[in-house]
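Pasting as-is:
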Amino acid sequence: MLPVIYGFIVGVVFSTTGAGGAILAGVGHISLFGIKDANVVKTYNQILVTLSGLVSSPIYLKQRRIILILALLLSVGSFLGSLAGSQLSYNHLRDIQSYKVLFGILTLIVSTKLIYDALSSNKKGKQNLNDKVQAKIQKMRLYLTSGKFSTSFYIISPIVAGFIISFVSSALGIGGGFLILPYMIFLLKIPAYFVPGTAIISVLISSSTSFSNYIRLGVNVDTSFLALESLGMLIGSFVGPFLSKKLGERNLKIAIGLLLLYIGIGYTLGGWMKSTFGIKIL
């Protein structure tokens, strides 16, 4: 039952925080289930990311919160970047200890972002744009308008960003949402209402391409273990929004952020603290 229970927890986190779900999945695969092959950890993580995207993308599509042309441009870069990232990582990031340190640094970054987002969330007004987004390409620029929202950028920008972000995420076995969301909001000036749904398409392409390539390269997966973990994750993905409403998304993000902060410190400084002070963190 342990894979089901942990998968449930990961599913709840996926459906409430996004990036934190892939990180927590990796922590479980490394520390709870004791997987010693970094490539297996990366593959398992991205299979769960793909399943989460399959669950959430139809919901965003129904809500008309996906800018399809932007999602397509991001996905072109994501496909190419995930192939390159998984190929390089499979050959040069196989050692679990080296991977654990890099994963710990990433965990610290994501935990800080989650806590910051939670503490600043009540300062941001909710945006509810129901107008259809109008898209027009002119002189290699994409122009997007919807109601009072209007922005434009060169079409090469999301392709390059999709490549870089998916390269990093596929190499480390995560979803990449913590990078793609600020890129869309701060650089492309996309309203927050459209960001998660548009980003999830790119993440879905990246993660599915990446885990398929890892398997093609020779990673062996335990289908029974994955089936149990995936079952728990899918249940958690449906339950998560209800728990978020009950407990408050802000409180959940702070709690998960603090947990990931502890894990990140343990993964990056655990060996040094044990040898220097005799303190064991993880």
